[in-house]
Amino acid sequence: MSFRNKIAIVTGAAQGIGFKICRSLAGEGAKIILNDMDAAKAELAAVQINRENADSCIVIAGDASDMVVIKKMVGTAVEKYRRLDIVIANAGITLFGDFFQYSPESFNRVMQVNLSGTFFLAQAAANQMKMQANGGAILFMSSVTGHQAHKNLAAYGMSKAALEMLAKNLVIELSPFKITINTIAPGATLTERTLTDPAYKKTWSRITPMGRPAVVEDIADTAMFLVSDKAKHITGQTLIVDGGWTSVSQPPD
Predict the structure, then answer these.
(1) What does the alpha-carbon distance between residue 110 and residue 147 come to, in Å, rounded to a whole number?
(2) pTM (two decimals)
(3) Is 102 a catalytic residue?
C-alpha cells in the first residue's frame, strides 16, 4: 500500500474523476479529505469509500474556491492527522458560451473556481507542507482545451492553460521544500456528466486515435503516479491523457 498514512485533500470529488482518485488513494492506504459543492453527494461518496476502507475518508463540503472552505480543508487535515501530504485540485466548472455574447458573470465564475480556487488551495497546502520539512505533492487538473481551441470554451480553455503555467512557475517556489507540482490535462472522459449526452461516447470514439474516450480510471491512474513517491523528480509538468486526440485535434460534431 504505497500511500499508507499519507494525508490527501481532493476537491470536486463526489463523483467522476475526483471520486475515483479518492477511492484509489484510500485503497492504497491514504486518509482522504473529500470536498464537493454537493454535500449530499459528497456524504454518499464518503460512505462508499469508508465501506471499502474503514475510516479512510471525511467530508468537507462547500465551494472549493471559497477561502473559508480552503482553510477548513487544510486545517482539518492538520487537526485530525497532524500533516498534509497530497493535494489534488480537481474542482472546476465548464460554462459554454459564444465569445461574442459571453457574460462577465460567467467569465468571473469560471476564473474564480478554476483559477482562484486552485491557486489559493495550493498556497495554503504549500505553507503547511513547507513547515513539515519532508515535502509533498500538489496536482492540478487542466484540460486538452488548454492546448487546442474548442468552440464556445474560450474562457474555460484560457483558465486551464493558465493552470499549467501556474504549475510551471511554482517549481521555483516549491522545489526548495521538496514539494512537487504537476498538472494533468484530460481529454474527453466518460463521467456521470458526459454520459448524459447520448452521442458523447460515439463521437469521441470516432475522433480519438485510440478509439475511445478516457474512463475515470485512466485519469485516476495518472494522478496516482504523479502524487506518488515514484514521481518525486517530476515537477512543473503537464501530462495529457487523451488517447492521442491533441495530436490530430479533430473537432467533435
Answers:
(1) 17
(2) 0.96
(3) no
Region of poorest pLDDT, from 39-43, 118-122, 140-144, 146-150: 146-150
Residues 64-84: pLDDT tens digits?
Answer: 999 999 999 999 999 999 999
Catalytic residue among 6, 20, 31, 160: 160
72 has catalytic annotation? no
Of 20, 156, 178, 230, which one is the catalytic site residue?
Answer: 156
Cβ contacts of 146 within 8 Å, gap of 6 or more: 157, 159, 160, 161, 162, 163, 164, 185
pLDDT tens track for 202-233: 999 999 999 999 999 999 999 999 999 999 99
Report the phi/psi class of residue 62: left, alpha or beta, with left for phi > 0 and alpha for psi in -120 to 50.
left
Superfamily of domain 7-243: NAD(P)-binding Rossmann-like Domain (3.40.50.720)
